[in-house]
Every structure is written in C-alpha cells, then in structure tokens.
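FAQ: What does the model actually see?

It sees only this:
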Amino acid sequence: MPLPNAADTVTRVRITAVSLTARVAVYVAAISLVGVGVGLMVTAELGVAPNDVMNTGLSEVLGIGVGTAAWVTAVVAMALAWALGRRPRAATVIGGVVVGFAINGTLAVLPELDAMAGRIVFLALGLLAVWMGITGVVAADVGAGPLELVMLALMDRHVTIRVARWGIELALLAIGLALGGAAGVGTAIFAFCTGPVLAVTIPRGTTVLGTDLRNPAEVAAAGP
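And it is asked to produce this:
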C-alpha cells in the first residue's frame, strides 16, 4: 500500500478542520435557537420546559431576566458536574452564555400577548424552535450542556439514563414550582413530546452533519 504524500495529509487535516468549524457553527446557531424558543414560550405564558420553570421562578424571586437566571443555573450545574468528576468543556461554557443572551434578547423584542390565539402560536413556535435547537446541539457533537453534564456525571456513578434525566427534570420542576415558576400546558407538552420528537430528528441531524452518536448517553443528553 503506497504511503500518503504530504499533500494528501494536508488535505485531510483541512477537511477535518472545516468539518469541525461547521459543527461549531451549527452548535452556536442551535443553542441560540433554543434561547429563542424559550423566550417564545415564556412570552406565551402557557408553560415552559421543566428546567425553565426553575429559571422563571428564579427570575421572579431575584428580580433578574430569565436568561440571566439561566446563567445562574448553568454555573451551579457546571460546578456540581465538576464536583462529580465531569469537567465542563469549552462548548459547555459557551452554550450556557449564548443561551442566556438569546433568551434575554428574545424577551426584549417580543410583544406582550393578550389574545389566546397568539399565545398558542408563540407556544407552538417556541416548542418547534427548542426541539430544532436541541437536535442541532446534539447532532453537532461538540459538547454537552450544563445540565446534561450533571446527568452524565450521575451515569458515571451507575445511575441509569432514565433515572438521571428524569430525576434532574423533576428536581428542577419542583424547585421552580416552589419559586412560582411558569408551569402550564406547555410544560406537559414538552415533557411528554420531546423524547418522541428527538427520536426522529436527532438521527436525521446526525446524518446531515456526519456525526456518529451511537452512545445512548450522548443521545439522552438531548432531553427527556
């Protein structure tokens, strides 16, 4: 078998670099889309995702923006994951920062809605944006989010995927409800529909991006 020449090696390196650059771009765009979706769901006032119930509760109690509350949650989650042996990667930190900015920015430009029809539209668009964003984040395969890092750390201690994920979601939901977070029909829809939706979208996303997520833990990091 002939040895590859220098030109072939350089070409392969460039292809790999471009591929990674594209995946990072997808990751940043996708995590931004998650923030937009959260902003739409908050504005709809029909309930948000379980983890965002806590963020809206913190927002009310501390008098800060929902995106800012998401930063607080991210920092606490990353610290907990690190203490459990899962050190945050650069993408984890970047994702936590970007999603907070996206949430605050979206809430700043969206109008308040009174009509139920408009609120339902915002909820539907928010769910769609969050699901598309989560799909992109997972399919890009450049790093798990803060809460997903906690889940993976628990799995390192032989906690099953379902128990780890649902335990985190239920804990955040309970804390959020105690703080007066924005739970509602949107919360139930997200909880019951996210898994089936991502089961369809993630495989397609990985096919498009050429990533290989055969490890169930990586796929489970997408949502409940």
